[in-house]
Write the structure tokens for this entry.
Amino acid sequence: MTTGLPVFDTTVQQTNRWLGRVQAMLPDASRQDAYAALRAVLHALRDRLPLSAVLGFSAQTPMLLRGMFLEGWRPDLAPVDAGEAADFCADVAKRLPSGFDHSADAAVTAVFAVLTDRLDPGETDRIIRLLPGSLGRYWPVDYRVA
């Protein structure tokens, strides 16, 4: 089904590619699981980034994902303390629906892999540098920034 508006059809196609990649990285995940993982990780990430990084990141996402990423965001609030990897994953776990069949660690790993694949490398570097070093283990091995 198409909308007849190329900009909407394109964003749906692009969003489906992102979801498909997340789904492929989470064994036996449904499309709903992929969406839940993507949303939980992106919201946890968004809440830890400064305003300029949130806006730079969102500008590189498909329009549909941009809306989901910014949904409920309060730019007037200071970013949440980035904490360490355990804090980040605990936040992701709280955002995942009950009955989610994968760990928060698996969701973070899957979404971070998609980010390295879909975002400009400079933007990915910037995000990595803004996060605690302990989150480095969740990025693909060949993309970890020293």
In short: The radius of gyration is 15 Å.
